[in-house]
Structure formats: C-alpha cells, structure tokens
Design goal:
Number of helices: 23
Distance between the termini: 37 Å
Shape: globular
Structural class: alpha/beta
Helix content: 40-55%
Largest sheet: 6 strands, antiparallel
Strand content: 15-25%
Radius of gyration: 25 Å
Strand order of the largest sheet: 2-3-1-9-8-10
C-alpha cells in the first residue's frame, strides 16, 4: 500500500514548486519510502508502505517509455494469483504495482474490471494527453483531484493540493451539509470535499480527464452485479455465506507483519476475529486484538446495553489461544483533548468525535506491536450481520406474505419472551405508518440540532441536497429490501469510510481491511433473498447460524444484547467541562467573528430541557466544525490573502 500524488499539465508547464506536495506525506504519514520524478508535462509521487513481502520491490511511480505512459498506484491486490495466471506471468515476488502495469498494457483502462482489492491509480497517457484516475469499487483508498488552467493535480491527501494551490477556498455547501446531514455522516454528496474544486473520486469509477473535459465512467456498482449464488434452501445459503466470508477474511491476511483487529464482542468484529484466528493458527501466527474499555466508573445502565465488553471478549478468546488481547481506554483522555491533531489527520470536520481518538489509539498500538494490517468490520451491520427483525417483517408485510410474517413474529416473541398480541399490534401500526410516509411525496426531515444558526440555511435546502445524492431519506422507518439495496449503493457512505480509514491508517503506518465490505460480500448480500436476514424470525440469522460452533452461545442467543463502545465519553467530557466548555465557546465565537457563524450562541447559552448527553452531542458536532473553520479554512484563506 502507499499514498500517491502528482500533477499533469496538458501544455507542458508543471508548476516549478510542485514538489511541495511531498511535505505532508513526510510530516504526518508513516511511510517506508518516498519516490517521485518530474518532467515538463508530468510530476508523480508515491509513498510506499511495506505491507506485504512483495511491496519492498515496488517501483512506483513508473515511466513506461515504450507505451508513453506514467503510472502511480496505491494498491494491494487480493486476486494477484488469478491475475498472474491471466497475464501469463510467474509469481516470483512481483509487486502489485507491476501487476497493475501489466494489466493496463494488456487490457487498457478496462483492466479495472479485472482488479480486486484496495487501490487508487493514476495513469498519464502522454501521447493522447489523457489522465485516468481510478478508484476501487468501494473507494477503500481515497483519491482527490483538482482541475484548473489546463492542469490536474491529484493526491491521496487534500493538503498537498492545497499547498500547491493555496488560493483554493472552502466549500460552503459541504460545511452546510455537515451541519444538516442526519446521523454521523459529515457529507451528503459523495464527490464533494470541504474545499472548492477539490473533488473525490467516486467508488467503482474511473475518470478520463483531458484538456477539455472530465468524463466519469462507472465500472462497478452492486445493482449491476450478477447473482452468482442461487442456492436451494437456507442450508445451502449458509454454507455459501460461510465459505465466502472465510475467503474474504483470508484475503485480508496477506502481510509480512503481524495481523491485528479492532475487536468488540459484537457479531461483526467477533466473527472476523475468530475466522482470522483459525486461519492464522494454521500458519502458527497470532492475532492481536484491541478492545476499548471504559475508563470512568460511571456508565449507562439501560437494559440490554453492554457498556464494558472486556469479559465477553475474554470469553470469545478462551476458545482461540492465538488471540493476544489488549484492552485500551485512551488513558482516560476526553475526546476533545487531541481535536487539533485528529482534524489535521482527517483534513475535514467529522462527527465521529467519540470514536476517532479511540480508533487512532488502537491503530497506533497495533503498529507498535508490529501489525501491518488491522481488520475492521465497519460495514457488517449492512452485510454479514444485517437482519433487524422489523426490517424483514416489514418487507414480508409489503409483499403480503402474512403467514410467513406471523410465523416469524411468533418465533421471535417466544425467544425474547414478549407478548405476541401486543407485538403484532405494534408492528401493524408501525408498518401502516411507514406505508403512509413512503407514499407521501413530501419529506418532513429537518436538521434536528437545536444549536444551529438558522441563517446558514439561506439559499440552501437539505432536502434538495439529499435528492441530489440519490438518497430518499425516510426518518426512522424500517429498511425493506429495495431500501436496503439502495443503502448498499450509497456512494457518499463509501467515500467517507474510505477517507477516514485511509488517513488513520497512513497516520499509524498500517492498512485497515474490512472483509464485510469486500465486493464479493456486497454482491452476495445484495442478491440474498431478504427473508434470510432474519430467517424464521431470528434476527441476524446469517451470522448467528454460520457461527453456531465458533462463538459463545451466550452471545449468539441473546438477541436483545447491544454493545456500547466508548460509552463513557460523555462522563469524561462532563468531568472536564470546566476546561472544555470555555474552549468550545471560544471556537464558536471566533468562527462567528470571522463570518462563519455555525452556531446560534444565544441558543447555546440558553437553558433547555433536552437530555444532557444529547445536548452535548449536538454541541460537539458544531464545536468540531467551528474548530475546523478556525484552524484550517481560515488559516489557508489568510495565507492566500497574504
């Protein structure tokens, strides 16, 4: 794996100081080697991480004089053996970059359909004066670009582009999207960034950029994939699912270093963990697990919420001796202490202010233990462990499969010891309400942050932005099959996950791999008969059934159990509020004075009856945005003015 950057000039006048793009990679990324070269029409760079044995031999960027092309790539290929066979090459330690170059020579730009793994690629065809920028099917490795004045700059990070073109201003629409978007997503439009004219490459696409135009071509998306696993009956689907899941995990383990995992006792990361442990055991290797545990003694006491997962993780690991456990708590620091550092790493405002510091600690500890790959399960809830009972029952209701609905509901109620009569009544009322909302052409969603300055929504419509992104937002409604399939195709989700995984990984010196986001798993889950996600009334049936003999029954059979990681974040912030509160207000006031009033200061100061933790969450969202504006946007604006 690596990071890539560069410039191409259609008129042969690459910027004199373009090598400044290398500086952020030297400063904030843990790379093993940096290579670059410059010619009149092209500058390319590559910062290489030695993740696999072959990556030590990488020759990137590479000038192919015979074919008149320059290429640089950030890549780790999962189907390299298959590609070597198709290309009739021997596997003599050839690095993945060489395989990509050979694939491009044989198939041209259509080679992207042959590649599987994590990659972003830049190819400059000097003869045709065409630049290709390529993202993998789920944008696992982010790639930004800027086009102006007969030139294109591209980079894994945004800061190198901003250093090369300091006049780039902030993107007001993106910042309003951050303030208005529902949930933890900071972005609504997949290709937009916090900066004007800096764009992201969309998942499953390649761009052809010439002097006159930018053409986007989609080569992969879930809706256009073939159903390759037409099984007969639930048992066949379970076997197919398990074998595929195992292969997806196996492919992530190719590394010359240790393998780590950010593991809780939830079904996603736990299932990845046990599969990885079994596969590594065959090679006499360990799996290094990292689990967040609370620091504060105070915790939420809501029924069915597990706030400290240490004992459950130990229960899982008791069956797998090669799991080496580490429990972390970020040394009791609150999530606001290192905000400047994480904003520098992320290069964007983010709402995951609770999780990013603890994830960063996990990745850095893993790197210190010699891990070069750290496994995650970010997409698991939508793929391998999808199957909320309400979603599947609603899909049965929509398709008038009432007998199956009643059978599944009865089984569910018996297991969780709930009244079937009251559950049926609640379901019918909920489903009828969902039908009315779905039939309505009017959306009722409004940003729910009470501290937002409403002035920022002048000449801005969050509804139109959601429609532009292709999202039909229906608040708190069950996810029936078509809606689930639409969710699996949301490009903004993939580009955001790719951004923070790429950047956190580069900062720590590791590569993050998510088997639940493997294109084969996405394809399988897209075409899976929807009823099987909660087959027979068992929520998350796929993973519960497939791992019946691999995970503790206490975890598999407790359907109402939910792990709450980082649950003590609020108590840490509350503990330190005397200091944090003043800093938050300073950030918001400074933003207002500079003309970027993201918060209604009077509303912040006014007492209200809102839940204290919810109030803190909304305030933290805006304080992160305010700090971003102060530290980054205004800094570069003033630099440009000077």
């Amino acid at each position: 794996m690596s990071a890539i950057w560069g410039q191409v000039s259609f008129e042969g006048n690459v910027y004199d100081q373009i090598t400044v793009m290398k500086e952020p990679y030297q400063r904030k990324c843990r790379l093993d080697r940096i290579e670059q070269y410059k010619r009149p029409d092209c500058y390319m760079g590559c910062g290489i991480q030695y993740i696999t044995g072959e990556s030590v031999l990488e020759q990137l960027p590479y000038a192919d004089e015979e074919n008149g092309t320059d290429i640089t790539a950030d890549c780790i290929l999962d189907n390299r053996r298959e590609l070597l066979q198709k290309l009739e090459l021997s596997d003599s330690g050839m690095p993945d970059g060489d395989i990509i170059r050979a694939a491009y020579r044989k198939w041209g730009i259509s080679c992207v359909r042959q590649l599987r793994g994590q990659f972003s690629i830049a190819i400059w065809n000097r003869r045709k004066k065409e630049l290709y920028l390529i993202a993998d099917p789920v944008s696992s490795r982010c790639l930004y670009y800027y086009r102006a004045h007969n030139t294109v700059l591209f980079s894994t990070l945004m800061e190198p582009i901003r250093l090369a073109v300091p006049s780039i201003a902030y993107n007001e629409r993106y910042l309003k999207d951050y303030a208005a978007a529902p949930g933890l997503m900071p972005n609504i439009i997949s290709s937009e960034t916090p900066y004007k004219d800096i764009c992201k490459c969309n998942p499953g696409t390649w761009l052809r950029i010439t002097k006159d135009e930018v053409c986007e071509n989609t080569y992969w998306e879930p809706a256009n994939t073939e159903n390759t696993s037409r099984c007969h009956g639930a048992d066949e689907y379970i076997r197919a699912f398990y074998e595929l899941y195992r292969e997806c995990v196996k492919d992530t383990l190719r590394s010359s270093g240790n393998i780590g995992i950010a593991m809780s006792s939830g079904l996603d990361s736990a299932s990845i963990g046990v599969l990885a442990a079994r596969l590594l055991e065959k090679e006499s290797k360990n799996l290094y697990t990292y689990t967040y545990v609370p620091y504060e003694n105070e915790a939420h006491t809501a029924k069915n919420l597990v706030t400290n997962e240490e004992s459950d993780v130990r229960r899982i690991a008791s069956q797998y001796p090669n799991m080496k456990l580490t429990f972390l708590n970020n040394s009791g620091k609150n999530c606001y202490e290192d905000l400047d550092h994480w904003l520098d790493v992320m290069e964007m405002p983010y709402k995951a202010y609770v999780n990013i510091p603890s994830l960063g600690e996990i990745y850095e500890k893993g790197a210190g233990d010699g891990c070069k790959v750290i496994l995650t399960g970010q997409m698991g809830n939508a793929t391998v462990s999808n199957g909320y009972i309400d979603d599947v029952l609603y899909d049965l209701y929509r398709n008038r499969r009432y007998v199956t609905l009643l059978r599944n509901l009865n089984h569910y109620c018996r297991h969780v010891k709930e009244s079937r009569k009251s559950a049926l009544g609640a379901c019918l009322r909920y489903f009828q309400y969902a039908d009315r909302v779905a039939r309505s052409s009017e959306w009722t969603y409004k940003p729910d942050n009470p501290f937002l300055n409403q002035e920022i929504f002048k000449d801005y419509s969050v509804i139109e932005r959601l429609r532009e992104s292709g999202v039909e937002y229906m608040e708190k409604l069950p996810l029936y099959q078509e809606a689930h399939r639409s969710f699996l195709g949301r490009k903004a989700m993939y580009t955001y996950i790719g951004e923070y995984e790429t950047k956190l990984g580069l900062a720590a010196g590791v590569v993050l791999r998510d088997p639940t986001r493997d294109v084969r798993m996405l394809q399988f889950c897209y075409h899976l008969p929807y009823e099987l996600y909660a087959h027979g009334g068992t929520p998350r049936w796929l993973i519960r059934e497939a791992f019946r003999d691999m995970l503790p029954h206490e975890l598999l059979d407790d359907w109402m159990r939910y792990g709450v990681q980082n649950n003590d974040w609020f108590f840490r912030v509350k503990r330190d509020w005397a200091t944090i509160g003043a800093v938050v207000m300073t950030d918001l006031e400074n933003a207002r004075k500079a003309g970027y009033a993201v918060a209604d200061i009077d509303s912040v100061r006014r007492e209200n009856s809102m839940d204290e933790e919810l109030q803190m969450m909304y305030l933290m969202y805006l304080s992160v945005l305010g700090r971003f504006l102060n530290n980054i946007c205004l800094l570069y604006t003033s630099d440009a003015a000077d």
